[in-house]
Write a structure and sequence with these properties.
heterodimer, A: 122 residues, mainly alpha, 5 helices, B: alpha/beta, 7-stranded mixed beta sheet, globular
Chain lengths: 122, 224
Amino acid sequence: MLIIQVVLIIAMVAGGAYLLVVSPVNSRHLALRRLGLLAFVVFGTAAIIAPGLTSEIAGWVGVGRGTDLLLYLLFVAFLAFVATTGRRQRQLERQLTVLTRRLALDEAGPPPQRQADDSVRR
Amino acid sequence: MAAVHDTWVVVPLFNEEPVIGDVVRGLLDVFPNVVCVDDGSSDQSAREAEAAGATTVRHALNLGQGAALQTGITYALADPAMEYVVTFDADGQHQVSDAVHMVQRLRDDEADVVFGSRFLDSRTRPGVLKRLVLKTAVVYSNATTGLHLTDAHNGLRALDRKVCEQIDIRQNRMAHASELTQQIAKTGGRMVEQPVHILYTDYSRAKGQSLLNGVNILTDLLFK
């Protein structure tokens, strides 16, 4: 197996597992994501300015063409995006649930007290 | 049958306008406390339920059956006289007489939770596909809880107050049934099953769980 294949597969599985299960949402996590994004922008810009660059890097890590390397990296980035978005969505849903429940219960008021009810009926 | 004032029947309600009135009236014949949790229905379900005499609690948004159940249980817990909660589907497939028996078993202190099961006798006749989906859910549920239930996704249950105080349903959609059994198993509550009759009408069949929804349930459980 090529080095790049091993590296990408490990990165994907580990990254996915980390984002889905382990990582708490905190500022450290957010900072890492932003740094990752920054690196991505730098890399993308460099690739545009010097088209030969991606092919050269690809050669170092054992991928034939620079376009393949880009495809793999985009794949990883996309999976990371799906994972973080999914997590964020679950958190939002949780908050929305708590809010909606609070609202519904407050609107309904407390359950009728049975004794009082009986005396009214009598 | 004497009215049971210490029992709240929780009915998660979502777009069941044609049948909810009859379901509520049937329940009120026996159980004076019925709360319908209207889960953001787009039809007149909530009004029908209220007109039939149920208390209604309304979600401003559609959240799912699990969320509606938890809201109903939280509501019932606010009644200090509440000793038992029955969960009952809004589509008319459950029998009130089954619910009465289940509460009686709690009253006799036979268990802390009574689950309805449609597979304990031959009265209920689900189709082959439905049976397959339900049985898969049972296998998964038993594997994760270490319990031996025969029907994991039955909407008819009776819980005593202690159990209600301890559970916290966080699965908004259909995966709540497995979550509920997991939580009860964790608290060490005593569980028994009660054979119940599920009436599959054309109406309920049209609204039932599809095979594909089984995929959703599994995903929800794996990635909470």
